[in-house]
C-alpha cells in the first residue's frame, strides 16, 4: 500500500500545479499589452487573450492620400502587441512545463 501514498502525493502536487496554471492564465488574460509604430503615433492595445481592445492614432498620421501607410503602421503596432503577449505567456507558463517536453 505504500505506493498509494506516493500516488496520492503526486496527485495533490498535480492539482496544485493545475490550480496555479489556471491562476497564471487568468492573470495573463486580464493583462493588457501595447504595441506602437511610427514613433508612437499609432498605439494598439490587446489583452492576454489576443483581443484588440484599443487603437489610438495621432491625428498627424491620418493622411487621406496615404491610407496604405496608416494601415501598415496599424499592422506593425498590432503585431508588436501580440508578440509581447506571446513572450509574456511563454515566460509565465513555461515555468509550469519546463522539462516536460510537451508539444504545443
Write the layout of secondary structure elements.
Layout: H1 2-30, E1 32-37, E2 42-47, E3 52-57, H2 67-97
Question: What this model shows, in words?
Answer:
The protein is of the alpha+beta class. It contains 2 helices and 3 strands, in the order H-E-E-E-H. The chain has helices at residues 2-30, 67-97, and strands spanning 32-37, 42-47, 52-57. It has a 3-stranded antiparallel β-sheet. Helix 1 (2-30) runs antiparallel to helix 2. The chain starts with a helix and ends in a 7-residue tail after the last helix. The mean pLDDT is 89.
* Strand and helix order: HEEEH
Number of strands: 3
Average pLDDT taken over every residue: 89
Structural class: alpha+beta
Strand order of the largest sheet: 1-2-3
Shape type: rod-shaped
Task: Report Rg.
Answer: 21 Å
Q: What's the end-to-end separation, in Å?
A: 36 Å
| Poorly predicted regions | none
Tell me the major beta sheet.
3 strands, antiparallel
Helix content: 55-70%
* Count of discrete alpha- or pi-helical segments spanning 4 or more residues: 2
Strand content: 15-25%
Notable characteristics:
104 residues, 3 strands, alpha+beta
Question: What's the quick description here?
Answer:
By secondary structure, this protein is α+β, with helices and mostly antiparallel strands. The chain contains two helices and three strands. Strand 2 and strand 3 (52-57) form a beta hairpin.
Amino acid at each position: 500500500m505504500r505506493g498509494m501514498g506516493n500516488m496520492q502525493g503526486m496527485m495533490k502536487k498535480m492539482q496544485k500545479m493545475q490550480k496555479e496554471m489556471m491562476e497564471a492564465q487568468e492573470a495573463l488574460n486580464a493583462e493588457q499589452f501595447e504595441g506602437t509604430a511610427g514613433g508612437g503615433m499609432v498605439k494598439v492595445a490587446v489583452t492576454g487573450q489576443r483581443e484588440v481592445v484599443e487603437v489610438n492614432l495621432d491625428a498627424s498620421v491620418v493622411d487621406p492620400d496615404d491610407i496604405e501607410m496608416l494601415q501598415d503602421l496599424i499592422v506593425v503596432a498590432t503585431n508588436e502587441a501580440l508578440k509581447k503577449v506571446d513572450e509574456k505567456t511563454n515566460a509565465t507558463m513555461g515555468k509550469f512545463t519546463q522539462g516536460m517536453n510537451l508539444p504545443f
